[in-house]
Design goal:
Blueprint: E1 6-11, E2 14-19, H1 30-43, E3 51-56, H2 77-97, E4 102-106, E5 109-111, H3 113-119, E6 123-127, E7 131-133, H4 145-155, H5 157-165, E8 169-171, H6 172-177, E9 183-185, H7 190-202, H8 206-221, H9 223-232, H10 240-250
Parallel strand pairs: 2-3, 3-4, 4-6, 5-7, 6-9
Antiparallel strand pairs: 1-2, 7-8
Length: about 260
């Protein structure tokens, strides 16, 4: 599936989702949010894929929202709510619901909406010159509640408060120290490193990845979701992947996890 500003390309078992808004550091338009949701909705049933890399075009990840659109809808409560709940959050929720592991390839600007999108990913790698922040208080409005909670949970209390209350902008090393990033790399190495990490994931058991993601979600939600997880946690016992992984180990050979 391809949209003018959000594209999906398959390379074997890895999908590359690319944000593209030339001249605006890939700032998210309303159309891009809708397209991002559609891309991730399409990924849900694709059993040939094992991992997704999310990236921006042209050396930037995403510089936030495309503010040139804002005067057309942000000054009416109904249209503002529609934007955040049914466009932005719907896209972010589609990412959070994706059963495939998501790897963020972060280069350059990762601001506002970019931080939100990166927060939906399971693993984040960034270039040494990448910059992170959400300085929307300069524009006179807050981050929407569910988006703020997502970012707060991913980057931690200290940096979330500084980004949102003081318009703080931080470098990649600070985000690594906070536990948001897995690796900080020389800028030129980020694309290859992200795709190598995705290939590493793609070679492993897709069943294990899917169940691990379900575990993370259920334990974070708590309550009934956690109880349901405990009730079904061992349903994979007689699965082909379970048998193949153990047989391969005992036979001293690489496993072959075929698409189910």
């Amino acid at each position: 599936m391809t949209d003018r500003q959000v594209s999906l390309r398959r390379e074997g078992a890895v999908a590359l989702v690319t944000l593209s808004n030339p001249g605006r550091l890939n700032a998210m338009t309303r159309a891009m949010w809708r397209a991002l949701r559609a891309v991730f909705d399409d990924l849900h049933g694709d059993t040939a894929l094992r991992c997704v890399v999310v990236r921006g075009e042209g050396g930037a990840f995403c510089a936030g929202g495309d503010i040139s659109e804002y005067p057309s809808f942000r000054f009416e409560e109904a249209s503002l709510r529609e934007f955040h709940e049914n466009e932005v959050w719907a896209a972010l929720q589609a990412m959070l619901d994706c059963p495939l592991p998501l790897v963020a390839q972060i280069e350059g600007a990762c601001m506002g909406a970019g931080v939100e999108i990166a927060s939906c990913c399971d693993i984040r790698l960034a270039g040494a010159s990448a910059k992170f922040g959400a300085p929307i208080a300069k524009l006179g409005f807050p981050m929407a509640p569910r988006e703020a909670a997502l970012v707060h949970g991913a980057i931690g209390d200290v940096l979330a408060r500084d980004m949102l209350l003081a318009a703080g902008v931080h470098g990649a090393q600070r985000l690594y120290d906070a536990g948001f990033l897995l690796h900080v790399l020389p800028d030129a190495e980020v694309p290859a490193a992200a795709q190598a990490h995705a290939a590493r994931i793609a070679a492993l058991s897709p069943q294990a990845a899917r169940l691990h993601k379900a575990t993370f979600t259920a334990l974070k939600s708590g309550g009934a979701a956690a109880q349901q997880l405990l009730a079904t946690a061992y349903d994979y016992a007689d699965s082909a992947e379970h048998r193949e992984g153990i047989d391969a180990f005992l036979g001293k050979r690489p496993p072959n996890f075929r698409p189910s």
